[in-house]
Structures are given as C-alpha cells and as structure tokens.
Design a protein that fits this description.
Elements (H helix, E strand, L loop, with lengths): L12 E4 L6 E10 L5 E6 L5 E3 L6 E7 L5 E3 L2 E13 L2 E16 L4 E6 L4 E4 L6 E6 L3 H12 L1
Antiparallel strand pairs: 1-2, 1-5, 2-3, 3-4, 5-6, 7-8, 7-11, 8-9, 9-10
Length: about 150
C-alpha cells in the first residue's frame, strides 16, 4: 500500500546575502565547519549555495498577499482589520488598516502579526486582506514609502 503525504505549504526560506545584500529564497542550511565556524547558507533553485546573514533568515508562512507576493517571517504587512461595533443601535463592520511584523511563535508552532505601535498581536487568518510593504530588516525603505504616501 502506497502512503501519500501532503504538505499544506511549501517549506522554504529567505535571507539577505552577505556578499551583495540582496534577498535570496531557497533551502536553508546551518552548519558548523571543521574549524568550528558557524555557516548559514541558502541554496537557490539552481543548487548554488549563498551565504546569508543569520538574523535575516525567515520562513515562508504559506500565504501570499493580495498582489500575489509571498509572505515571509520578518515581513511587514498592512492588514485590513474588521471590528464589529454597535452604532445607532445596529451592529456594523468597521474596517481599519494597520502595519504588522510577521513573526514565528515557538510555543504555538505558528505565525502571528505583531504591532509595535499599538502593542497588539493577532493570529494570521487565511482570508485576511494583506499587503507586504517591506520587512523588519529594511525598515528605512518602509519609512520612505510611508513618507511618500503621506504627501
């Protein structure tokens, strides 16, 4: 009897290359060489290894934003939040947008949104409207985008 296993999402990682500061996606390997030095590599699709900064490595969470962009741990996403409030005696939906960092939670073995600004946390729902606007390692770029959109 043949047993098939089905993965619900692709397991891959992204990290910033040490030689050129560009992002790369692929399979992540962390090992200690014969000299005792710790190495962090991401193997790209073609099989070539690329050294990456370990603090920038993030896992693909299995979701894409509204534009089809893959979401990784460490990304900053704009999320459309829905609150149900009572106005003039009727329950209505109130939509707000907020920026969150995507992070992994070891205890729950899952991902969540974390807002530095409002100190709030949310678990990620598949049908939440999301848009990747940057990542926590390129915060300056995100701040520039915000300044441009405020004009």
């Amino acid at each position: 009897m043949k047993v098939e296993t089905k993965t619900t999402r692709e397991i891959k990682f992204r990290g910033k290359r040490t030689n050129c500061n560009e992002w790369i996606e692929g399979h992540y390997v962390n090992y200690i060489d014969c000299r005792g030095a710790e190495n962090h590599l991401i193997y790209y699709r073609n099989g070539n290894p690329n050294y990456v900064y370990p603090e920038t490595v993030g896992q693909y969470i299995g979701l894409k934003d509204k534009n089809g962009v893959e979401i990784y741990e460490g990304d900053i996403v704009k999320a459309k939040l829905v609150d149900i409030v009572k106005k003039r005696g009727k329950w209505v939906n109130v939509f707000t947008y907020e920026d969150f960092a995507v992070e992994y939670i070891q205890e729950d073995t899952g991902f969540r949104f974390r807002s530095e600004e409002n100190k709030t946390e949310y678990y990620i729902m598949q049908d939440t409207e999301l848009e990747v606007i940057g990542n926590i390692y390129d915060k300056d770029a995100v701040n520039e985008l915000k300044k441009e959109s405020d004009k």
